[in-house]
Specification:
This protein is mostly helical. The protein has one domain. Helices cover about 50% and strands about 5% of the residues. It is built from 19 helices and three strands. Strands 1-3-2 form a three-stranded mixed sheet, covered by helices on one side. The chain is globular, with a radius of gyration of 21 Å. The termini are close together.
Length: about 375
């Protein structure tokens, strides 16, 4: 993929990524908060058909997911202490520590299942696996969609410039994420919420957040206690541990969503990335590789995203053909940002696409990497 560079001499000032600092006021003043985003044109009747919810795809995938976890957990327990346990826990770890993220995500949108209680309980179970408070993260993710990568507004910005490459590499083994996420749960269990959390969680929801944090912390502490009583790591291989040894696939796919792309724009084609992936990764990831499409139309269920992609691909930048290609593009941008943090990947649009919506950010002050 050919890359051309554009640069300016604009000075870089390290930004405050909190939700209560000066960047929040700046985003609001510039009209970037809760703003109207660009959407590709889709006929109303077609969009209605894409948004139809069904229990069947998610039930099928959830039964396979839980069934495979049960089989590999039993196999791992039965072969514990031998090398035969390694493949069982390798698969179990990915199913627990990575597939949980996409299930958490889709059920959090209430779009995976048609039946509400199915969305709710798969969401809660997956939230436990990924060590996220199911109440606070529902509102966090809502804000992420309303203000995607708007500094001072989005609580889920994964790349704060300049990005620490070591920190991102350590995420593949759950460090320091697992400790930070458990610390948040512990704090929430004590009814303590940060200023950022209080910014996006409605006050009346805080007692619910405390309740679920206490449940989650209690289960994890019980697993730790059982490990001490039995003097074995096996309980932690089943509960909690996959958030370390099985999280690599979640991180591998998740970093591609927005890494190396633009901040403070109102066009998801500039700040989100669609990547073609192999069928196994797509199943683990529940089609979230179609990430531009998901952000444009977040209520389209995961099983309809390939069809949505086919409908609007002529209005989007060309998708990265593979995970490897996506990482090459992202890492090149992140490495450049360590020297000039204002850089970002800017892909060329096809002739059939409408121009980027970028009237609310100053092109002359933001250097880019333009990808042809």
């Amino acid at each position: 993929m050919a890359v051309t560079e554009a640069t300016t001499n604009a000075p870089f000032v390290k930004r405050d990524y909190s939700l209560t600092g000066p960047e929040r006021d700046r985003a609001i003043a510039r009209g970037l908060a809760s703003a109207e985003w660009y959407h590709s044109d889709i006929p109303r009747d077609v969009m209605k058909s894409l948004m139809v919810r069904s229990d069947e795809p998610a039930m099928r995938d959830t039964i396979i997911w839980i069934g495979l976890m049960a089989i590999t957990a039993i196999g791992g327990i039965a072969t514990w202490g031998t090398w035969w346990a390694v493949p069982f826990f390798f698969i179990y770890g990915v199913l627990y520590g990575s597939a949980c993220d996409s299930r958490w995500h889709e059920c959090g949108h209430n779009s995976a299942f048609k039946t509400p209680w199915m969305n709710r309980w798969v969401y809660i179970i997956a939230s436990f696996m990924v060590m996220r408070n199911p109440v606070s993260w529902r509102f966090s993710h809502l804000r992420h969609h309303v203000d995607t990568i708007i500094v001072g507004r989005d609580p889920e910005i994964g790349f704060m410039r300049p990005t620490s490459m070591l920190r991102k590499a350590l995420m593949f083994i759950g460090i320091p994420d697992i400790f930070q996420h458990f610390a948040i749960l512990w704090r929430n269990a004590l009814s303590q919420f940060s200023p950022d959390e209080r910014d996006y969680i409605p006050e009346q929801q805080l007692p619910k957040a405390t309740f679920w944090a206490r449940i989650f912390v209690g289960i994890h502490l019980a697993a730790v206690a059982l490990a001490f009583v039995t003097w074995s790591l096996l309980p932690l291989m089943i509960i909690g541990g996959p958030r370390i040894y099985g999280t690599w696939h979640m991180v591998m796919t998740g970093l591609l969503q927005h890494g190396g792309l633009a901040e403070d724009v109102l066009d998801h084609r500039l700040n989100s990335r669609t990547v073609h992936m192999n069928p196994v990764s797509r199943w683990i990831y529940w089609n979230m590789n179609y990430h531009v499409e998901h952000h444009m139309f977040p209520m389209v269920p995961y099983h309809a995203l390939p069809k949505l992609h086919a409908l609007i691909k002529n209005d989007l930048p060309t998708a990265n053909p593979s995970i490897v290609d996506g990482y090459q593009e992202m890492i090149d941008s992140l490495k450049r940002q360590r020297v000039e943090p204002n850089y970002y990947v800017r892909k060329e649009l096809p002739p059939t696409a409408k121009p980027y919506r970028e009237e609310l950010h100053d092109e002359d002050s933001i250097p880019q990497i333009s990808v042809a």
